Amino acid sequence: MDAPPNGPDAATIGPVVAVSSNKGGVGKTTLAANLAVYARALREDLPVLVVGLDDQRTIDRMFGLRAPQPGESNLKHAWAERSLAGAIQLGEYGVHFVPSPSDVSRLKARAEDPRALARILRASEWPGLLILDTKSDLEALTQNAWHAADRILVPVADRASLEEAGKIFRGLERAGLDPSRARVVFTLVDRRTRDEGGGGALFERLVAEVHRRGWPRCETTLSRSPRVESLNSGSEKPRSILHHARGTAIHAEMGALCRELLRDLAPARSNAPHASGEGELWGARIGTVTPLRRPGWWRRS
Q1: Are 95 and 15 within 8 A, CB to CB?
Q2: Residue 212 forms beta bridges with which residues?
Q3: How far apart are CA 242 and CA 255, in angstroms?
């Protein structure tokens, strides 16, 4: 099996999380973007960077503090320069992001080597959490994200997305990657929905099937929420669950999922040679979610 990218040869970078699904409409980008916001609120001293590997530019619209400027660096330029450093921008909620290109076709042509992104991230030396939001396919850029990630979150909302999740686990095996780096995350859960094919609650049947197939999964599940749908579609700029959906089930669930993820990443980071206080960074001091009143700022020392 291929070793995780954040071993001794990449000790100066933080953990990398990819969110991957071959099926649209399962909450993939919502999950990636809001995990970034919650991580910053849980740990205000933790740098968080989000990179979108598609041309939908949802990440840009959510985190951008201003309109795109002519000639500014985006992911396409960063890929050519083999480092994200020159394209990283500070965004809303204290989250950093790399602007997405308007067309990813040329970027895909540069991504034929599935390990290219992992090398780019090592060269970028981002010391905090890095989240990759993939396109709804299993093509070159998505495979690059798999190779770069310490953890891959696979959203499952229904039977169709469950079958697509199977393609990811099989794809990891074919690529020589350990499938245990992936975790199923149940999204858009409505426990009242019945399984028309076999009777009973759909959610319970999905859980049973994931268990039968031996796939690891996150304990936290994310409920379907009309409030979240309105946050994503009610304006040009998507808004965060943390700041605009207080009092809803999904507000608490997203916080629980983020805590679970950070604790899950802690063992992988605790043995890093640069990890002074690393166990504290990734586990012990994860506390109450407190929304940032304004974007934070982080500088390299």
Answers
A1: no
A2: none
A3: 8
Given pLDDT bands bounded at 50, 70 and 90, which one contains residue 9? Answer: very low
pLDDT band at 151 (very low <50, low <70, confident <90, very high): very high
The tokens describing 58, both together, are 């949802």
Of 91, 82, 178, 77, which is closest to residue 131 (Cα–Cα)? 91
230-235, long-range: CB < 8 A, 24+ apart: 232/30
Name the pairing type of β-strands 151-156 and 16-19: parallel
Residue 57 to residues 54, 60, 74, 104, 296, Cα–Cα distance (Å): 7, 5, 11, 11, 22
φ, ψ of residue 169 to 5 degrees: the values are: -65, -40
Q: Is 47 left (phi over 0), alpha (psi -120 to 50) or beta?
A: beta
Q: DSSP strand E in the chain: where?
A: 16-19, 48-52, 89-90, 96-98, 129-133, 151-156, 182-186
User: What number is the average pLDDT over the span 187-216?
Assistant: 85
Question: What would the pLDDT profile of 211-224 be if each residue is shown by its tens digit?
Answer: 999 999 999 999 99
Which tokens belong to 109?
Answer: 């042509």
CB atoms within 10 A of CB 119: 17
Sketch the domain layout of the chain as residue ranges: 8-275
CATH number belonging to domain 8-275: 3.40.50.300
pLDDT at 26: 94
DSSP 7-31: SGGGTTS--EEEE--SSSSSSHHHH
